[in-house]
User: What shape does this take?
Amino acid sequence: MRVIGPLAHGIIDYAMVILLVVGPSVAGFRNPKQVMMCYGLAAAHFLLTFITRFPLGVLKSLPFVLHGMVEIVVAILLIILPWLANFSAGVNSRNFFVAIGAIILIIWMLTDFRGKRSGGRASDRGAAAR
Assistant: This one.
């Protein structure tokens, strides 16, 4: 069931950026490389949200559907990142990245990227018709 619309998704995205910035301090990351990964992810997530064609996007150049495609890839990569980047032994950072990946995956599963929830009036369809 797709219950999250574009506006709510945008709010969640900006909240996720904040979480990614403060997360390493709260979770007690000790490795600067993992902290920088988190900050890089926060910057990339902010940029993705900033350029997306939806209510809280600023540049509105990336279709919301593509935003969703990027997020599903990022979610999967975050879940396996501790093992790919060889820091799975660091419990705090491993759990943090896996949890963030799982949260993004759940948000992705609940978001209506195609505008069916709003009766086909997704913001990126209206902008494309102009």
User: Anything to note?
Assistant: Residues 6-118 form one domain. Residues 118-130 have pLDDT under 50 and may be disordered. The two ends are 30 Å apart (CA to CA). Strands lie at 52-53, 62-63.
